[in-house]
Every structure is written in structure tokens, then in C-alpha cells.
């Protein structure tokens, strides 16, 4: 029987708009407490803390310390800290930058963020390689920059580093590009977001990456783009996706990265339904 442990992504931060141009970052403390308590009651193994925010570099430095509080909330409710999703909306988190100083600054940002976890290291840190559109002629150069960045990060971070596949024309949007990166950086692994492949089946992507998959982001989408729907509400072939994970020997967490409107009870019901159907088959 194949039934990975159950996990769920939780947003640490939100944004409160003060007017059309001004806002402040909010720490979702009460929401985290409510959801982690419910997750424990419904038998979740653990959580992924998503530490991104729509902030600039100064705001990041002023607010990122709240992740320590978020980690404590997860552990106080008896859950495992499975994954930390590092920021990707910040000005200096661009690991494929063709500007070498900007690339190096991005690597230093990871080191700075990881230092916040001290004795509370998760099993895995998730990193977005870059989310900016690329022209095809610059992709090889950007991939070279990404190789350097991921190598330096893997040498520093005392946990699994999992780079995430991007959507649209972002880096690693196809498995062939991801395989070149993984071949060049032996310590690097991947988190596969099944929402993201638009020009390639997520099933094929999983089959190609195989044992280098250490985490997954689970949600559904429509014909146009990623939506973070609950599985079954979109177009993805869930039995085929689960079968592919089973065949490659996936042993990580089945981590739901669905919209925050879904409660832990709904996630648990979906999880049980998916694996009941798969294991009956």
C-alpha cells in the first residue's frame, strides 16, 4: 500500500492594505494557531511554513524574525516542521541573475534566512530558482548561474535543499532543464509542484526526476494556469500522479499547497479519498 505522510503548507505572513499604495506585513499568528491545532486533531504529520511576503529587502529584514514564532506554534501543537519555503517575492532572491553581484547577494540572503532556524532545522528548504520570464537565448546562461547558486547553497545549508519547478517560461519549467541542474549539483534535490508544468505532463516530470524528488506541492489547476484548487476540482490526473510517485519510490510528505480558504478537515478528507481510490485500484 502506498500512502505518504500528510502535510500542508501554511502562510506565515499576509498583507494589510492601508491605501492604494501603502501596506504593512502582518504575521498570521492566530490563523497559524487555529490551523495547526486542527491539523494535529485530524492526524497530519507536519507542516510547511511559507515565509514569502510581498515585501522589499528592508521589510524582509524587519519581519522575518517572526518565523521563529511560527516554528514554535507548529511544534507546540505536536507537528513536525517538514519544510520551510524560503522567500521569493523579495528584490534580492534571484539565483539566475546574470549580474554576478546580484546572484551572490541572493545566495547570502539564503544563508541569512537559514540562520533564523538554528536548532529547528526542517527536513527540507524549498527554493524558487527565479520567477521572471526568460528569453530562450539567455536560458543557458541563466542555468549556469543557477548551477553556481544551488551548489553554494547546498554546501552551506545543513538540510535538504529542494529547488522547485517553475511554471510558464520560468526556470525548470521542463524536466530536461531540471535534469541538467541536478546532474551538475549532486547534493541538490527537487520539490515538484504538480500545478506548474504546463507544456509537459506532471506525470512525465515526476518520472524523469525520480529519486531526487524529496517533497511535493499538491493542488489542482485549470486549463490555463495554476490555481491551487483542491485535487479533484481541476483537470490534473490524480491517480496517474500518485502512481508515478509510487513508482519512483517517493518517501516524502504528500504536502497540500492549496488555497488558504480550505480547512484542514477538507484537506484530510481529500487525502483519504485519493489514497483510498488509489490503493483500491
Description of the molecule:
The chain has 281 residues and is of the alpha/beta class. It has a single domain (5-280), classed as Divalent-metal-dependent TIM barrel enzymes (TIM Barrel, Alpha-Beta Barrel), CATH 3.20.20.150. Helix content is 39%, strand content 21%. The protein has 9 helices and 12 strands. It has helices at residues 29-41, 57-63, 66-76, 100-114, 139-156, 175-184, 202-209, 238-247, 264-280, and strands at residues 5-11, 13-17, 23-27, 46-50, 80-85, 124-127, 160-164, 189-193, 213-218, 220-221, 226-229, 253-256. The strands form 3 sheets. The protein has an 8-stranded parallel β-barrel with strand order 1-4-5-6-7-8-9-12, surrounded by 5 helices. A two-stranded antiparallel sheet has the order 2-3. β7 (160-164), α6 (175-184) and β8 (189-193) form a beta-alpha-beta unit. α1 (29-41) runs parallel beside α3 and α4 runs parallel beside α5. The longest helix is centred in the middle third of the chain and has 18 residues, at 139-156. The radius of gyration is 18 Å and the shape is globular.
Amino acid at each position: 500500500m502506498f500512502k505518504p505522510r500528510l502535510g500542508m503548507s501554511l502562510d506565515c505572513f499576509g498583507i494589510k492594505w492601508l491605501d492604494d499604495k501603502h501596506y504593512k506585513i502582518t504575521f498570521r499568528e492566530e490563523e497559524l494557531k487555529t490551523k495547526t491545532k486542527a491539523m494535529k486533531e485530524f492526524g497530519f504529520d507536519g507542516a510547511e511554513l511559507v515565509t514569502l511576503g510581498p515585501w522589499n529587502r528592508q521589510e524582509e529584514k524587519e519581519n522575518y524574525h517572526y518565523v521563529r514564532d511560527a516554528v514554535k506554534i507548529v511544534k507546540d501543537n505536536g507537528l513536525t516542521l517538514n519544510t520551510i519555503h524560503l522567500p521569493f517575492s523579495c528584490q534580492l532572491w534571484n539565483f539566475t541573475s546574470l549580474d554576478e553581484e546580484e546572484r551572490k547577494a541572493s545566495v547570502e540572503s539564503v544563508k541569512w534566512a537559514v540562520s533564523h532556524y538554528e536548532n529547528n532545522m526542517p527536513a527540507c528548504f524549498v527554493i524558487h530558482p527565479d520567477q521572471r520570464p526568460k528569453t530562450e537565448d539567455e536560458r543557458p546562461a541563466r542555468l549556469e548561474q543557477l548551477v553556481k547558486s544551488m551548489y553554494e547553497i547546498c554546501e552551506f545549508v545543513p538540510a535538504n535543499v529542494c529547488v522547485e519547478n517553475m511554471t510558464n517560461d520560468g526556470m525548470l519549467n521542463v524536466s530536461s532543464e531540471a535534469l541538467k541542474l541536478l546532474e551538475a549539483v549532486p547534493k541538490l534535490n527537487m520539490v515538484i509542484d504538480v500545478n506548474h508544468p504546463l507544456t509537459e505532463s506532471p506525470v512525465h516530470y515526476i518520472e524523469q526526476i525520480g529519486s531526487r524528488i524529496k517533497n511535493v506541492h499538491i493542488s489542482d489547476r485549470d486549463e490555463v494556469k495554476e490555481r491551487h484548487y483542491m485535487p479533484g476540482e481541476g483537470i490534473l490526473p490524480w491517480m496517474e500522479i500518485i502512481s508515478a510517485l509510487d513508482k519512483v519510490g517517493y518517501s516524502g510528505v504528500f504536502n497540500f499547497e492549496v488555497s488558504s480558504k480550505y480547512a484542514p478537515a477538507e484537506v484530510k478528507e481529500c487525502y483519504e479519498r485519493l489514497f483510498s481510490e488509489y490503493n483500491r485500484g
